[in-house]
Amino acid sequence: MKFLLVFDFDHTIVDENSDTWIVKCAPEKKLPNGLRNSYRPGHWTEYMGRVFVYLGDNGIKEDEMKRTMTTIPFTAGMVDLLGFIGENKELFDCIIVSDSNTIFIEWILKASDFHKVFDEVFTNPAAFSSTGYLTVQNFHAHCCAECPKNLCKRKVLKEFLDKQLERGVSYTQIVYIGDGGNDLCPVMILKKDDIAMPRQGYTLEKKISQLAQDLSPVECSVLVWSSATDIMSYLKALIKK
């Protein structure tokens, strides 16, 4: 009996958006209007690339970015939840699928010593260039019309599950924990024994309830959470079954 926990990162594990949190490093903690208005829907990663160039041009170095990122708050109850999962790793495989980037997630998880809880992190690859500028790339290419250009979480989840099956690993239940519009695509492939856990009041919850109103509900069960304590209660009940 093994369960797969799939976590989004921003507004799910941490209570903010890591990409907008980095703006605290910028002069006067804000971006120029021209840069802020340069975002085009579906092209967030390219936009963040321009933000990182601006930070680099203003002399913001890696250590300052790291200091800022490790002050990002975890969502209520999340520290306890991740501790609980860590203590029960024989029952839970745990992955992150996020539109953030490898550097930010690694910094935050290592600073809090939660990196061991997660088996894999799927997110946009980031690195510091020889000139000390942070760079970020699209995670992959895909043909999903619903998702941003750089990342289709459904494709990531599907490929992960296929790879696990090849290794002889199948899951009693998949638990998908997220908040954003881009979390709907992977939720759509969950089966009736699986469970989607959208964060209360966020886009994913609204989209799932809209589908139910349109009489085309998702196949899996849905349990809304407002604090990670709700998720922990569910997982505790699950492993007692």
TrEMBL record:
<keyword id="KW-0378">Hydrolase</keyword>
<feature type="binding site">
    <location>
        <position position="8"/>
    </location>
    <ligand>
        <name>Mg(2+)</name>
    </ligand>
</feature>
<feature type="binding site">
    <location>
        <position position="19"/>
    </location>
    <ligand>
        <name>substrate</name>
    </ligand>
</feature>
<feature type="active site" description="Proton donor">
    <location>
        <position position="10"/>
    </location>
</feature>
<dbReference type="GO" id="GO:0016791">
    <property type="term" value="F:phosphatase activity"/>
</dbReference>
<feature type="binding site">
    <location>
        <position position="179"/>
    </location>
    <ligand>
        <name>Mg(2+)</name>
    </ligand>
</feature>
<protein>
    <submittedName>
        <fullName>PHOP2 phosphatase</fullName>
    </submittedName>
</protein>
<dbReference type="Pfam" id="PF06888">
    <property type="entry name" value="Put_Phosphatase"/>
</dbReference>
<dbReference type="InterPro" id="IPR016965">
    <property type="entry name" value="Pase_PHOSPHO-typ"/>
</dbReference>
<keyword id="KW-0460">Magnesium</keyword>
<dbReference type="InterPro" id="IPR036412">
    <property type="entry name" value="HAD-like_sf"/>
</dbReference>
<dbReference type="GO" id="GO:0046872">
    <property type="term" value="F:metal ion binding"/>
</dbReference>
<dbReference type="InterPro" id="IPR023214">
    <property type="entry name" value="HAD_sf"/>
</dbReference>
<feature type="active site" description="Nucleophile">
    <location>
        <position position="8"/>
    </location>
</feature>
<keyword id="KW-0479">Metal-binding</keyword>
<feature type="binding site">
    <location>
        <position position="10"/>
    </location>
    <ligand>
        <name>Mg(2+)</name>
    </ligand>
</feature>
<dbReference type="InterPro" id="IPR006384">
    <property type="entry name" value="HAD_hydro_PyrdxlP_Pase-like"/>
</dbReference>
<comment type="similarity">
    <text>Belongs to the HAD-like hydrolase superfamily. PHOSPHO family.</text>
</comment>
<feature type="binding site">
    <location>
        <position position="99"/>
    </location>
    <ligand>
        <name>substrate</name>
    </ligand>
</feature>
